[in-house]
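Q: What changes when pyridoxal-5'-phosphate is included in the input?
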Amino acid sequence: METLGYYNGAIGLLDELRIPMNDRACWFGDGVYEATVSANYIIFALEEHINRFFNSAALLRMSPTITKTQLAELLNTLVHKVDSPTQFVYWQMTRGTAPRTHTFPEHTAPNLWVMLKPQVFKDIYQKIKLITVEDTRFLHCNIKTLNLLPNVLASEKAKQAGCVEAVFHRGNRITEGSHSNVHILKDGIFRTAPLDNLILPGISRAHIIAHCVKLGIPVDETPFTLEEMFEADEIMISSVSTFCMSASYIDGYQVGGKDPERLRQIQDAFLEEFYQFTQTANHSASGRKQSVHKHGT
Ligand code: PLP
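A: The predicted holo structure follows.
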C-alpha cells in the first residue's frame, strides 16, 4: 500500500477509509496523538513515544483499551504493509463515538487511529529560517492533544514568510516551536526551555540532552529570552521529523553560525543514533538524506 489508515481494526488507503461523524475528534478534537518516523521499517524511539502517548491520555482522563505492548505490536505490523520503508508514523486516540455533548460520554470506548505515509527526510545540516510568534496557546502544552489551531496558524505564517518554523514566545520567554522544541548554544552551554506545562516534552529534545551529556556539553534547562535567542551562538529546533536543524535567519535577521563545531557534534551524534536504531548504520553520519534513500525510499 502507498499509504495506510487504520481505524479500530479497519484498514484502508488514507483517501478511502471512512470515520464516523460522531467520533469526538470531529466535534472537539477530543483526543491525543503521537508521531514518529520509520526507516528500514523500524519505528524510531517507539517505546518513548508510546509512553508519552499513554501519559497524554491519562492527563485527559482517557483509558486506552489497548496495552503498550499491543500498540507497539500493532504499529510494527502496520508499517510492513506500506511500500516505503521510510514512513511518517502517526497514531491518535479519541475519547469515543457519541452525539455531540461537552461532558464525557458514557458507554463508549476510545477510538484508535493510525496514519502511515511515506517520509522524505530533510538534510539536517541545512540551515533554516524561522519567525517568532506570540504564544497564545492554552496552558496544557505538555499534553499532545489534537487541538493544534494556534500551531497551525503559526506554521502557516512561517510558510508565508518563506520560513520553516515559527518560534513561540510568551512575552519575552521562548517556549517552543509550532511543531518542534527550540534550543540555543551560548558560550559552550546547551540551553533549552524547562519541562513544564508550556512545552511538549519532546522525545528529540531528550535525546539531544543525552547526547550533550555524553559529549561533555553542559545543559541548562532554565528559560531563555527572545534577546538571548537572537544573540545565541547557534539556534536549533528539534523534532522527530527535523531531528536537529539550525537557523541562519530569524524574522529576517541573520543569527547563529558562531559555534559550528559543537553544533555539528550534536547533529552527528543524533544522526548516528538514528542510523544505529534503524539499522541503516553502514555509513558515516555525513548525509542522512542520501543514506536513508539508499535503503529504499
Ligand atoms: N513541540 C511541539 C508543539 C510539537 O508538535 C513537537 C513535535 O511534534 C515537538 C515539540 C517535538 O517533539 P518530538 O521531538 O517528540 O517530535
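Observations recorded in class: The chain has two domains: 4-118, 128-295.
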